Fold:
Amino acid sequence: MTQQTDVPAAPTRLPSARSLRGLDAMNFFLADVRDGLGPYLAIYLLAVRGPEQGWNEATIGLVMTIAGIAGLIAQTPAGALIDRTNNKRGVVIAAAVAVTLSCLALPFVSNFYVVAATQSVAGIAGAIFPPAIAAITLGVVGPKMFARQVGRNEGFNHAGNAACAMIAGGSAYFFGPIVVFWLMAILAFVSIAATLMIPGDAIDDDLARGMDHTKTVAEGADQPSGIGALLQNKHLMLFAGLCAAFHLANAAMLPSVGQLLTKISGKDHATSLIALCIVAAQLVMVPVAVFVGAKADIIGRKPIFLTAFGFLAIRGVLYTFSDDPFWLVAVQCLDGIGAGIYGALFPLVVADLTRGTGRFNVAQGAVATAQGVGASFSATLAGVIIVGAGFSTAFLVLAAISAAGFVVYLTLMPETRGYEPPGVQTPPASAVAVPVGA
Structure:
């Protein structure tokens, strides 16, 4: 018979105002640093380097694919690193420096293999940010405040994305694509300062990796459990599959709309309309993410996640109603609801499913890998359907995938609020609130 050991209850955390301001600032300023050059990479290589230096849509796409695969492979090891390290701020800073230097090197290199290598480094370093930010947040505010703070994080992240997109778009009009590099350097410097605003002693490293001292665990299991324990959690594996399905349905929608707008409005107008789509969707995501963070512990995770799948399916169907550019842009704004919900709920559900295992961050990485696989196949699937049957059929197929995800989540996925991971139980215990990170 397995002997049980009661571990003393951890106090409820009362993070300092400085720590919370640091989290807000870190999420706002890292919003663009974490993705590297993103869509600006293609613009720079095509507009500045161009075919005379060997750059066209095919070579640019190959570089982005290589970098994407490198980042995808790095997801799970990045989560494992965050679980193990007690210097999470240092890891975030190192990743920000690596991404920035990799991108700032571009004006000085032109060889395909060197460019691919720099962007692969940026992709690998970028894989650090999602688990690191979630871990720092959990370590600072603790499980009870985690849902609300994650929603706040996502709100500041989307606001940062929107602000940077507007600044980059306006500045590039006057100074050209090169301005993006200056913007990245400034954001990296400010994001490092924001990360250092969070005192090191404000982060509880045990809580940050998903250990919960309010749990009753098997004797000898007070250390982080092995990755094999995650594979035995069928609900975590199911959630990974659902995340892959969500991104299989979602990732190709905006690029497909961009292609449709290009056919309808021409390249110049399509670029402006897509920029408007991105900014508008990000602005919608801000209140959605804050709302999810505030209500996830009250409403529950499952009804809200079902809403994300539902709006994704509706969005795919609505695209087929009209080819009017303004209708397509308006429908794309619904991405702010689905993606806003997903971004805020993803770390919450993973934290629910792994609480007490000490493997919160490696689980984040593993599930992120699954969602990355779904996103990688999305564009190919949509492209094949568009060529063979047209845009409307492609949008309907993507909507059907989302609808199938809705049904699976509804019927097979439990409500994870209050979820007990296999082998971990919660004894009755009282907690005392103490301030941290003053």
